[in-house]
Design a protein that fits this description.
heterodimer, A: 143 residues, alpha+beta, globular, B: 106 residues, alpha/beta, four-stranded mixed beta sheet, 5 helices
Chain lengths: 143, 106
């Protein structure tokens, strides 16, 4: 499967972008828990682009959903300032409440819920890939 | 998002329902401000009717809890959000379950 959508990186487009990702994920026979995890991680990645990628100009966020052998890959692409989300520190979940910050929580969720999270910088673009192992059981040819 | 409230003695029990994402979290911020400026300062937030919460929602709840200091409790939040936003002390063991390999590359 292959689907893509490209829209201005504005919060008002979050719903449309998520809908596109969820409809692609819907074709992959993921269970509802997995779909919820995809929705959450996709929001985290998209909102990060919307809030930080374009400092002094507006720009687009481009989302590609595709299969790669046994994996379902969601690529979140922007042309903003170089930023590797996968290098963010995780939040300290043991800190006292008054010291607690939610910086890094997005990548914390992604690492916990996705099978892999990859970043690459290519042709002046940030490409963040959320990778899920596809179900190989069921009625597919693999069984 | 939808909000419900009831009072038990001095405690405001605030029910949050629906989706708490980057788009709707500001609704909670506004609502909390209203409750707080209305004089409430002891809260229980019941999140069991929340269908969805992202880090934007957690950020808003954390900001409210910080403002209230020790005078708030959370109810009905599921993992992994609960693990992150546990108002009581989180355990060290839950933290070590997180893969750290990528972070060490930074």
């Amino acid at each position: 499967m292959f689907s893509e959508i490209r829209l201005p990186a504005k919060l008002e487009n979050l719903g449309k972008l998520l809908q596109s990702i969820l409809s692609a994920a819907g074709e992959e026979r993921f269970d509802s828990l997995r779909v919820n995890q995809i929705e959450l991680c996709a929001e985290e990645a998209l909102v990060n682009v919307m809030n930080y990628a374009y400092a002094e100009r507006s720009g687009d966020v481009h989302v590609i959903c595709r299969d790669d052998n046994d994996q379902f890959i969601i690529e979140i692409i922007d042309e903003g300032i170089p930023f590797d989300l996968t290098r963010m520190d995780e939040p300290d979940t043991t800190a006292a409440l008054s010291e607690r910050s939610v910086g890094g929580l997005g990548i914390f969720f992604m690492r916990k819920m996705m099978d892999d999270v990859r970043y690459r910088r290519e042709n002046n673009r940030n490409i963040l890939s959320l990778v899920l192992n596809r179900k190989t059981s069921g009625n597919g040819p693999r069984e | 998002m939808q909000f419900t409230t009831r009072k038990e003695n001095d405690v405001l029990i605030a029910g949050l329902a629906g989706r708490m994402d980057a788009v709707t979290a500001p609704d909670f911020d506004r609502q909390f401000k209203e409750w707080f400026s209305g004089g409430a300062n002891l809260f229980v937030f019941n999140l069991s009717e929340l269908q969805y919460i992202s880090s934007a929602g957690l950020r808003s709840i954390l900001a409210a809890a910080k403002q209230l200091k020790e005078k708030s409790f959370l109810r009905g939040l599921r993992d992994p959000s609960r693990r992150f936003l546990n108002f009581q002390a989180s355990t060290r063991s839950s933290r070590s379950a997180i893969p750290r390999s990528r972070q060490s590359a930074a």
